[in-house]
Design brief:
With 209 residues, the protein is α+β, with helices and mostly antiparallel strands. The chain has five helices and twelve strands.
Amino acid sequence: MEDAPSWVCRLTTRFPEPIVSLYISPSPALGRLRLDFPEGDLLRPSWDEYFLKLAMLASERATCPRMHCGCVLVKEKYVLSTGYNGSLPGLEHCEEVGCLIVDNHCVRTNHAEMNAIAQAARHGVSIDGATAYVTNMPCTTCAKALLAAGVVRVVVFSDYKGSLAEKFFDESGVTLDRRTMPGTVITYDLEGYSSASRFKEGTSGSETH
């Protein structure tokens, strides 16, 4: 924007290049604010980005320091189940007592995909025909479990060392889609939304785990 006035600022979103021009004028005669968006609705995430971001959010609950992984099982744009890698219910976490390593793998935890499958099973939810959104390529064992449960598509944004998942997906006719990692920032303009406001001081509740 070589011909832009000196008071033009550039905003960036989750994309590597700026996509929004923000014009802030010092003169009321010129107008206070103008946003120029490119063609298309680039600020709204696609469905794949949306569900991958949910998987990333689930991974924040992970308790193994060796890797945080999240999985979201989806069918017809409806979330069926979620999971993250962590210890079995009621047992100690890696973050508390350390990892339990066997053959260079931590076996104290269940992987995210296994926990998502288990959650669906405990609530009687069929995942046949579902898509698995996972932060990482599933390990070989999780890939086979997803296949056995009827998952027909897997979407990831990073690989997992030593996994044969792609081989089994290919042989089973399951679609594997590699996507770019979504942005790590959630944009919520609380101050800018006319129908929303912050809690009054002293009225917010305490967080539970």
